[in-house]
Design goal:
Length: 561
């Protein structure tokens, strides 16, 4: 097929009908997709985890002075592993929809238990002091890793099951203290990494986890620091320092290891953490620098969309950092033909759309989505950024050019009615040709960016903005997007939409502050009362903007993009 496509392109290029180049597209191979979503693969992973846990507990039983026989130990391990799998399958289905995530979660949990078993083994062979053995276990390992990569619920899940399964590998007398220590340290690490944006915050979480472990050990009497090394001559504070160093050092080394391995895990399991989003928000990216020089209007538009989307995402607890970065790149495709987009036109300069038919203009405008994907794939941008580029217009209509085409057709028809033209030459106006290819926004963040994009474009046409006009504009845009079905595939609830609208209004008010015409108290009350009495007047702001925008659709050439 690829060869046939190449031949077709070459023949078209020879006739001057094609540039001969093929746009890059972002598609996952069918084999990877079926592996990722296969139920059989998922159930096999579950079975492997359950069996591996049971075998590990059974093997550890005789050496860890397990009071039960190995078989009973294995049954306990099996039950804990089955509970973990059942909980993962039912409660965390959304987080683990892909099988690679299941590998990550269960692999991290199993890896944690193996590391803990290894530390216990060192202690059994007197390679580390008996009193320090619990403080040298990296309790924060799986909880911190999964908390940072997949969020707090998954981190807590790891803290609970790492404590329960790990507890089976220690002598019966120590089981309770081990489970409490492991649980407290794990949960502390998860809580401390709630919103990690910098690597240093990971290290701080590691220290917190170590301090929590030390406090629990002291409270439960696990650390008798006067007799720690059987030496009464040893200075009390020096001994305490050693114990503290062991606990905090273990937390710190765990955090350091996770920090170093995060990029590997992010690449392998296609997860992006807050740390990476912050690193990606650097405006010095090659594409953004190009945009700054070649399409300054689009660059400014993207910055405003980023501020609107970030604040809105923050208000509903969505991923604000992701929204900021994806907004920076959402219109990167305009770099191919920046002069066709109104925000890049200089005052008094010629509008290139004047020389094109409406259908041609719509094609150029719509192409910025595919061009954006092409550039993003070429520059190896994050898959979430590529998704946002594809989804930020959904399958909405390029209304300005669609209406222009209809008007032209009507004018031609009138000519024909007067006998001045040929009916066969009448242009065919198909709505399909004026629609973006989609898909519609599929995530909450993508939905927010799509709304912020429309709000920013429309706000530029707002003359003499007032807080009431800004609110009316936002309301109108959101309602028209809902009516057009553009938010059907993202999980934004009505309650969240209300918060998003409120956030947009606040951000826009502060951005347009110098232009805002605040009405006097009496006028504001009067207009508020009038709107309540006649809901049709809620689109006052739009009506006053004349035909520049209507129904949230921007109608100036290129602005619809
Ligand atoms: Fe845009
Ligand atoms: Fe766009």
């Amino acid at each position: 097929m690829a060869i046939l496509d190449a031949i077709k392109r070459w023949r078209l290029a020879r006739r001057g009908l094609s540039s001969g180049k093929k746009r890059r597209v972002h598609v996952e191979s069918a084999a990877v997709q079926s592996l990722e979503l296969s139920r059989w693969v998922r159930y096999s992973l579950y079975a492997m985890f359950v069996v591996a846990t049971a075998v590990l507990v059974m093997r550890a039983s005789p050496t860890s002075a397990f009071e039960l026989e190995p078989v009973k130990g294995a049954v306990c391990g099996l039950l804990f592993a089955l509970t973990a799998v059942a909980l993962l399958h039912s409660s965390h289905d959304a987080a683990c929809r892909r099988n690679s995530r299941v590998v990550l979660v269960l692999g991290a949990l199993l890896g944690h238990v193996v590391v803990m078993w290894a530390v216990m083994g060192l202690s059994r062979h007197q390679m580390i002091p008996e009193a320090l053995r619990f403080l040298l276990v990296p309790f924060a390992l799986a909880p911190m890793l999964l908390g940072v990569l997949l969020g707090r619920p998954m981190g807590t899940f790891a803290a609970v099951f790492a404590s329960l399964i790990g507890g089976l590998l220690v002598p019966a007398g120590d089981r309770l203290i081990y489970t409490v220590l492991s649980f407290v340290c794990g949960v502390t690490a998860v809580l401390a990494t709630r919103q990690v944006r910098k690597r240093v915050e990971l290290l701080r979480a590691g220290i917190f986890s170590g301090v929590a472990g030390l406090l629990v050990a002291l409270v439960l009497g696990r650390v008798d620091w006067l007799e720690l090394f059987g030496s009464e001559a040893m200075d009390r504070w020096q001994t305490f320092g050693l114990v503290g160093l062991a606990a905090v050092g273990t937390g710190l080394v765990t955090a350091l290891g996770i920090s170093g391995l995060l990029p590997v895990f992010e690449g392998m399991f296609r997860v992006t953490t807050g740390i990476s989003w912050l690193e990606l928000s650097d405006l010095n990216h090659k594409l953004l620098r190009r945009m700054q020089l070649e399409a300054p209007g689009t660059f400014h538009h993207s910055l405003v969309v980023a501020s609107l989307a970030e604040a809105a995402a923050e208000s509903i607890g969505a991923n604000a950092q992701l929204c900021r970065v994806c907004s920076y790149f959402h219109d990167v495709g305009k770099l191919k033909k920046p002069e066709y987009f109104i925000e890049n036109l200089h005052e008094g300069s010629e509008n290139p759309h004047d020389a094109l038919t409406p259908t041609m203009s719509a094609l150029v405008i719509i192409a910025h989505v595919k061009d954006g994907v092409d550039l993003a794939v070429k520059h190896k941008l994050n898959p979430r950024i590529i998704d946002t580029i594809q989804e930020h217009h959904g399958d909405s209509l390029v209304y300005y050019f669609y209406r222009k085409a209809q008007e032209q057709k009507r004018a031609e028809q009138e000519k024909c009615d007067k006998g001045l033209g040929n009916r066969e030459d009448l242009p065919h106006v198909d709505e399909k040709n004026f629609r973006y290819p989609g898909p519609k926004p599929r995530t909450v963040e993508s939905g927010i960016i799509a709304l912020a994009d429309s709000v920013e474009s429309a706000s530029r046409t707002l003359r003499k903005p007032t807080p009431a006009k800004i609110r009316a504009l936002i309301e109108d845009i959101v309602q028209s997007r809902i009516a057009d079905g553009q938010l059907d595939e993202c999980a934004l609830t009505m309650r969240e939409l209300a918060k998003v609208k409120e956030s947009f209004a606040g951000t826009l008010r502060s951005m347009l502050h110098s232009r805002i015409d605040y009405p006097k108290d009496d006028e504001a009350k009067a207009s508020g009362a009038a709107r309540r009495a006649d809901p049709a007047k809620s689109t006052l702001g739009l009506a006053e903007r004349g035909d520049a925008t209507r129904g949230g659709r921007t109608m100036k050439p290129g602005e619809a993009a």
